[in-house]
Design goal:
Distance between the termini: 87 Å
Strand order of the largest sheet: 4-3-2-1-5
Number of domains: 4
Helix content: 25-40%
Number of helices: 19
Number of strands: 24
C-alpha cells in the first residue's frame, strides 16, 4: 500500500512496510521514495492507494499538475472548506485516477493565492478580492523576474542597462539587496565569475578601480558627500569684533611648508633680546577664537575629525573659505595662539621663560621647502653671503632645535629606547616620504612618485619646534588641571600609542607631556586642545571654571575615542590609495616590470623607490633588509595585489639598525 502525505510543504508518497492500530489511531512504518524511513499517523495521510506503483504515480502527477487550470479549479471549488477527494471529482469527474488526485494535491499545495490551507488535505478557496490582489502581485512579480532576466543578460554581455545607470553607485556601494537590479547584478556575477566591482567596471558603470576605492571610502565616512555646505562660514562682524580686541605681536613670523600645503596653521618667529639672547615664537592659527563648542562649524569639524589626505587630492575638515580666513598666509596679520620661549646664546631654553597669549601675528613670508632645502647646510647657515631669506633666524632656530633633540634623546635612553641620530641617517636607506603628482596626459592619468629623505635641517627645525609646542601645551594643560586630548605612548602592544583625556608620557618622543595643538585647521583634536589653551591664556588659574571642557567631561572621552577611530580609518585610506597609485606607476608604461625590493619581516618586502609593500614568501627566512631583484606581473588594481617572482637575492650591505623606523608620531607634529 502507498500513502500520500505532505512534508515541509511538498507532496510525497511513501510505501507502507508495516501497520499498527486501527481507525484514527492507525499508524504505519513506511519508506519514502528517497529511501528515508518514516512513521506516519492516520491524520497525516491524504490518500491511500494500492496501485499504480508510487514512482510512476509521482512522475505522472508532477507532469499533470503543470497543466491544471487554477482559475477553473477555483471556480469549481465550493465556498466552504473541502477535501482533496471531493474537489478532484468536481474537476476531473467521478472516474478520477490516483495520478490525477495527486496532481491536484500538488497544485492545491503550491497555489496559496487561490486556496487557503485548512489542514492536511483540506483547503478553502480565497475570497475574490484577495484572489484578485494576489494575482496582480503575481503578475508584478513575473514582470520583475522577466526584467531581471533581461538586465542579467545585458550585464553578462558587457552592457550596463540604461535604466540602472542613474543608480549605478548606489547599486555597488549601498544596494537594496531585495531589489531586482541587485539580484540581476549578483546573478550575472555568479554566471561570469566576477565580483560586482569587476563586472560594473567592464560594463562602464564604474570608471575605474580608483572610483571603486574612493566610493567605498565615501560611503563609509561621507555618505552625504564630501562637499561642504556654503552656509558654514564665520560671521564677518563677529570675526571683526574678536580681531579688534587682539593685540598686535611685535614679530615678523614666517612659515615653512611644502608647496602643496594650503592649510598653513603654524609659523615661527625670532626676536633679538639683550646680551645675545633670542625669543622664539611658535604661532598657531587660532580658529578656536571664533568657532565655539557645539556651533555649526564645530559640529562639522567633529563629524569629520580631520582632513583626509590622499594622492592627488584631499577632503578638508573645514570649508576652504574658513581655512582661507585663518590660514597664516603671507602678507596678513592673522589671529594666532602664540607660545614664546627665550633661549641663550648657546640655544638652550631659559627656565621660566615660557609665555602663551592670543594675538594678531604679522606673517612676513611662507617659505617653501622645495625652494630652500638644497641650499641650507651647517656651513651656509653661518655664511653671511648666503642668499636665501631668513638665514640668521634659521641658524638660531637650528641651534636651539639641536638642543631640543638632544634633550629628547636623553629621555629616550632613560626609557630604555635607542637614541635617534640627528639629520639624514643613511643616504642609502629606504625613503619614507614621497610626493605623488598625478597628471592627465592625452586623457589618461599618469602618476609620478618622487622620494624625499627625512632629516634635513629644515625638517628638523620644523619638527623639533612643533614637538616642543605640543609638549609645552601638554605641560601647561596638565599643570593647570585642564582636561585635553593628550597623545601618549607607553609600553608595547596594539594600544601603545593612544589618545586619552589625562596627561601621560610619550616615551617614543622622550617627553613627559604631549598634546597635539599645532594643526587646528586640520585635526579636531588640536582644535579641542586650542579651546582649552585659549581659556588658560585668557583666565590663568581660573581656566577650569570657564574652559569648554571641564574636568571629567564624558563628552571629551567620547571625542578621544571617535578621533582615534576616525584618524586611523583616514590613514588606512591614504595608505590604500598610495598603494593603488604605486601599482598604477608599475603598469602605466606597459613594459615588463623588474625592480629591487628590500625584505622587512615575515615575508613582507618594500619596493626601493616607491612606498609599495608586497608579500614575498621566498624572502621570509632572509635577514631584514635583504635586497632582491624581482619581476612583477598580474597587477590587480581592485584587489591591490600583484604577482611577484624573485630573480636574484643579495645579502644586505647595511645593518638593519641604520634603516630603523622613526618613532610613532614623529612625523605627525
Amino acid at each position: 500500500m502507498y500513502l500520500l502525505y505532505e512534508e515541509g510543504g511538498d507532496i510525497k508518497i511513501a510505501t507502507v512496510q508495516s501497520a499498527s492500530g486501527a481507525g484514527d489511531a492507525e499508524s504505519w512504518q513506511a519508506t519514502s521514495l528517497s529511501g528515508k524511513k518514516i512513521k506516519l499517523k492516520a491524520k497525516e495521510v491524504w490518500l491511500r492507494f494500492e496501485k499504480p506503483e508510487a514512482q510512476a504515480v509521482m512522475d505522472e502527477a508532477s507532469a499533470l499538475s503543470k497543466e491544471i487550470d487554477l482559475q477553473f479549479l477555483w471556480d469549481c471549488a465550493p465556498e466552504e472548506e473541502f477535501g482533496l477527494v471531493d474537489v478532484s471529482k468536481e474537476y476531473f469527474g467521478d472516474q478520477v485516477a490516483i495520478s490525477q488526485q495527486v496532481s491536484l494535491a500538488i497544485a492545491l499545495q503550491s497555489a496559496p493565492v487561490f486556496f487557503r490551507r485548512k489542514g492536511r488535505g483540506r483547503f478553502q478557496r480565497a475570497p475574490l478580492e484577495q484572489l484578485q490582489a494576489g494575482l496582480a502581485a503575481l503578475e508584478r512579480k513575473q514582470k520583475e523576474l522577466d526584467q531581471q532576466a533581461v538586465w542579467q543578460q545585458e550585464l553578462v554581455a558587457g552592457a550596463f542597462p540604461e535604466a540602472l545607470k542613474a543608480q549605478a553607485k548606489q547599486l555597488l556601494f549601498s544596494p537594496d539587496k531585495n531589489a531586482s537590479a541587485y539580484k540581476a547584478l549578483i546573478t550575472a556575477c555568479t554566471e561570469t565569475g566576477e565580483s560586482p566591482a569587476q563586472l560594473m567596471i567592464r560594463c562602464g558603470a564604474i570608471g575605474s578601480p580608483l572610483d571603486y576605492h574612493q566610493g567605498m571610502f565615501l560611503k563609509a565616512h561621507f555618505p552625504s558627500g564630501a562637499a561642504h555646505n556654503a552656509n558654514h562660514v564665520v560671521d564677518t562682524s563677529a570675526y571683526d569684533a574678536v580681531v579688534a580686541q587682539l593685540p598686535l605681536a611685535e614679530v615678523s613670523a614666517f612659515s615653512i611648508d611644502d608647496s602643496g600645503t594650503t592649510e598653513i596653521d603654524d609659523a615661527l618667529s625670532v626676536t633679538a633680546l639683550s646680551a645675545g639672547a633670542h625669543r622664539i615664537g611658535v604661532h598657531i592659527a587660532a580658529p578656536g577664537l571664533f568657532i565655539s563648542r557645539d556651533d555649526p562649524l564645530d559640529q562639522l569639524a567633529r563629524n569629520r575629525m580631520s582632513t583626509v589626505y590622499f594622492p592627488g587630492d584631499k577632503i578638508t575638515m573645514l570649508p576652504n573659505s574658513v581655512i582661507a580666513q585663518f590660514s597664516l598666509d603671507e602678507g596678513k596679520s592673522c589671529p594666532a595662539l602664540s607660545i614664546y620661549v627665550d633661549i641663550d646664546t648657546q640655544g638652550q631654553i631659559l627656565e621660566g621663560s615660557l609665555q602663551m597669549r592670543a594675538e594678531l601675528v604679522p606673517i612676513a613670508a611662507n617659505l617653501r621647502l622645495e625652494n630652500l632645502e638644497d641650499k641650507i647646510s651647517e656651513a651656509s647657515l653661518q655664511d653671511d653671503s648666503s642668499d636665501y631669506p631668513y638665514r640668521k633666524e634659521l641658524a638660531i632656530l637650528w641651534g636651539a632645535a639641536k638642543y631640543l633633540h638632544a634633550q629628547r634623546q636623553e629621555q629616550r635612553i632613560a626609557n630604555g629606547l635607542r637614541a635617534e641620530q640627528l639629520g639624514v641617517i643613511d643616504p642609502n636607506a629606504l625613503a619614507r616620504d614621497f610626493h605623488f603628482q598625478i597628471k592627465e596626459v592625452n586623457g589618461v592619468e599618469r602618476v609620478e612618485i618622487s622620494p624625499r629623505q627625512r632629516g634635513s635641517i629644515l625638517d628638523t627645525i620644523v619638527a623639533e619646534w612643533m614637538i616642543y609646542c605640543n609638549s609645552a601645551s601638554g605641560r601647561l594643560l596638565a599643570e593647570h588641571g585642564l582636561p585635553a586630548l593628550f597623545r601618549t605612548q607607553k609600553g608595547w602592544g596594539p594600544l601603545r600609542t593612544r589618545m586619552q583625556t589625562t596627561p601621560g608620557p610619550h616615551e617614543g618622543l622622550g617627553l613627559d607631556y604631549y598634546a597635539w595643538s599645532t594643526s587646528p585647521l586640520r585635526r579636531y583634536s588640536d582644535l579641542v586642545n586650542q579651546w582649552q589653551l585659549i581659556a588658560l591664556a585668557k583666565h590663568g588659574v581660573a581656566a577650569k571654571m570657564v574652559a569648554p571642557f571641564p574636568p571629567r567631561d564624558a563628552n571629551l572621552m567620547g571625542i578621544a575615542a571617535d578621533f582615534e577611530s576616525c584618524y586611523q580609518a583616514y590613514g588606512e585610506y591614504q595608505d590604500r590609495l598610495e598603494k593603488y597609485w604605486c601599482l598604477r606607476s608599475l603598469t602605466q608604461d606597459g613594459e615588463p616590470i623588474k625592480l629591487f625590493v628590500r625584505h622587512l619581516k615575515e615575508g613582507m618586502s618594500r619596493v626601493e623607490l616607491i612606498p609599495l609593500h608586497l608579500p614575498i614568501p621566498e624572502l621570509a627566512t632572509h635577514p631584514r633588509m635583504t635586497r632582491a631583484e624581482v619581476s612583477i606581473a598580474d597587477v590587480d588594481l581592485l584587489q591591490l595585489s600583484a604577482g611577484v617572482r624573485v630573480l636574484q637575492i643579495e645579502l644586505p650591505e647595511k645593518p638593519a639598525e641604520s634603516l630603523a623606523e622613526v618613532p610613532d608620531d614623529a612625523s605627525a607634529t
